[in-house]
Amino acid sequence: MDEKDILKLLTKVKAGEIPVDDAVLKLKEAPFEDMGFARPDLHRGLRQGRSEVIYGQGKTPEQILKISEHLIAHGQGKVLITRMSKEAAEYFNKGRSEAVPEFTYHELSRVGIAGGVTDSSAKEPSLSGKIVIATGGTSDIPVAEEAALTAEFYGNNVVRLYDVGVAGIHRLLHKDAMDILMTANVVIAIAGMEGALASVVGGLVDCPVIAVPTSVGYGASFGGLSALLSMLNSCASGVSVVNIDNGFGAGYLASMINQK
Predict the structure, then answer these.
(1) Do 149 and 252 form a contact (C-beta atoms < 8 A)?
(2) 179: which residues sit within 8 A by CB, 6+ positions away?
(3) Which residue intervals of 110-161 are DSSP H helices?
(4) What pLDDT, on a 0 to 100 scale, did the predictor assign at position 6?
(5) Binning pLDDT at 50, 70 and 90, where does residue 118 land?
């Protein structure tokens, strides 16, 4: 139940179409429901302006499908599913009922989007700025696409600026790339190896930079730990850091910044 649903409910109570006790019961049932293996948060859109998201890794294909159908049945127009395996997506597509009219799967980023109605919790696309997603290399694109699809899911204008890492910094300093960066409302800088891209971008732009370390790199990168520590120690102001490979977290936070 989102803000629009509550307003409709209260309007019906005011008009005498629904008894007060029935309305109270609906509100009591709204926050979550126990499915046995999950308790979907049905009030998240109301509290935070963005509805429940399903983290697919570790869940069975059956669980992902059932949770998605449950959320959609309770008024969530679209459901974002992150870290969804190809096998889970195939099961979802074959097993979904009429309650889920559409399903799209992005294999590179492992993101699934279920439902055919605009998410009622998503804000209108922001016209005051855009989110620029920059990667150090092509190997960082899977994480970047998770961030991009998340931001787009929540109604943001996203511009991709891929493979502009510091190993060839002239690519980042080229006029075309600089024009894109300088008109951003927020930049997501995604890089593995030594993670230097975030500091460089942070020293160029006048907007918040969200740094995403990736697990891309040779042995001494320790699965992204070296990039994480480099980004946490950035000398550039205005750089915040999310966890290793957490494209979703970066896209979500960027959306919050862009739509303020």
Answers:
(1) no
(2) none
(3) 141-153
(4) 77
(5) low
Predicted TM-score (pTM) of the model is 0.84
The residue among 53, 48, 8 whose CA lies nearest residue 27 is 8
* 208 neighbors 186 (Cβ within 8 angstroms): yes
Q: Which residue has the tokens 């429901």?
A: 33
For 54-77, write each residue's pLDDT tens digit: 999 999 999 999 999 988 887 788
Amino acid identity, position 179: D
CB 40, CB 52: distance < 8 Å: yes
To which H or E segment does residue 15 belong? none
3-state SS assignment for residue 109: coil
Look up residue 61 and give its two tokens: 């294909």
Query: What residue type is assigned to position 93 of the chain?
Result: N
Which residue, 50, 40, 66, 68, is CA-closest to 2?
Answer: 50
Q: What is the pLDDT of residues 72-106, one digit of tens each?
A: 887 788 999 999 999 999 999 998 888 888 899 99
Phi then psi dihedrals of residue 50, to 5 deg? -145, 125
Element housing 55 (H / E) = strand 54-55
pLDDT tens digits for range 151-174? 999 989 999 999 999 999 999 999
Tokens of 218: 């040779």
Count, in order, helices (H) and strands (E) of the chain.
Answer: 11, 9
Strand 79-82 relative to strand 186-191: parallel, antiparallel, unpaired?
Answer: unpaired
Residue 63 and residue 57: Cα distance in Å, rounded?
11
Q: In DSSP terms, which residues pair with 106 in a beta bridge?
A: 111
pLDDT over 70 at 215, yes or no: yes
- Domains of the chain plus CATH, in order, are 45-114 (3.30.110), 131-258 (3.40.50.1970)
